[in-house]
Amino acid sequence: MRTTIDRLMSGVYWSIHNRTKGTFVASSHVSRKASIGRHCWIRQGVEVHDNVSLGDYSYVIGPDTLIDEAAIGKFCSIARNVIIGPVGHHHEWVSTHPFIYSAFYGFVERDKPIPQKSAPVIGNDVWIGMNSVILRGVEIGHGAVIAAGSVVTHNVEPYSIVAGVPARQIKHRFPEEVRRALLELKWWDWGDDRLREALPCLCDVDGFLARYGRGTRPTVGQGADNGLLADEQGTLRGRFGEGYADRKGSKVQPV
Ligand SMILES: CC(C)(COP(=O)(O)OP(=O)(O)OC[C@H]1O[C@@H](n2cnc3c(N)ncnc32)[C@H](O)[C@@H]1OP(=O)(O)O)[C@@H](O)C(=O)NCCC(=O)NCCS
């Protein structure tokens, strides 16, 4: 239960953060333990818990968006009424009810941590449409689009568009050659100056790749560490995937 003092402290903490990091965190329900990058925008009515990292320039719209646990990249767009990384109950136990591990019901003296699947790992430049659910244990590749109303139960390839329940690939954003070039380019790691310079051709993927794509190596900018690692094919490995919760001090263990 959050006290008024806790809410006030959150308000003060985020207003200082907003001034120093150029963010706009409007919700007092964003944990002070969450790692929020530069220029992020989190609207009123969004709940963000402790073990969450959000990369630079990503934004989250409310109301009713909940990010329970996740490593999320830069330049992501997350719509309203989205749930990411909700905790699971154990359907293989005798009962799924929390009285087995929650002190609230009086059967155990102290809350016990229960095993959870790893937190979702979401790449850079991912758009998550409204009313979607991203379950635990999944990885969403860079540049992917999650259509409105999807439930993501499996990994999503970079630059693919998935839709439905469970979410299935409906198409890719670009042909394979373009996808590969963009993944190689990793424009999301560029500094602000280079992005500003590239701005006029960001609405034209062919023009953008013609100018920056053929063997030109961009200067890597200093953006915040978003906890994501990618190999040359753009396959994501969450540095915080397995055992991510541990890094932030939670007692929740991966299954
Ligand atoms: C995913 C999305 C971007 C695709 O847009 P698009 O490229 O114009 O796709 P199309 O309308 O051509 O649809 C392609 C196919 O996918 C299906 N499809 C599209 N969106 C779908 C969805 N949300 N759920 C299920 N199927 C969907 C279409 O029915 C179509 O199927 P068909 O080929 O059998 O007819 C769009 O449908 C969407 O979900 N946008 C999210 C909007 C949103 O949440 N905005 C929040 C503001 S941040």
Please provide a written account of the structure.
- It is a single chain.
- This protein has 255 residues and is an alpha/beta fold.
- It folds into two domains: 169 residues, UDP N-Acetylglucosamine Acyltransferase, domain 1; 55 residues, no CATH class.
- It is 18% helix and 20% strand.
- The protein is built from five helices and 20 strands.
- The strands form four sheets. An eight-stranded mixed beta sheet has the order 1-3-6-9-12-15-17-18.
- A hairpin with a 4-residue loop joins strand 17 and strand 18.
- The chain is globular, with a radius of gyration of 19 Å.
- The two termini are 27 Å apart.
- The relative contact order is 0.13.
- The protein binds coenzyme A.
- Coenzyme A binds next to strand 17.
> How helical, in percent, are the residues?
10-25%
Please report the first level of CATH classification, the CATH class of the largest domain.
Answer: Mainly Beta
User: How far apart are the first and last residues' alpha carbons, in Å?
Assistant: 27 Å
Average pLDDT, all residues: 86
How would you summarize this macromolecular structure in one to three sentences?
This protein is an alpha/beta fold and 255 residues long. Helices cover 18% and strands 20% of the residues.
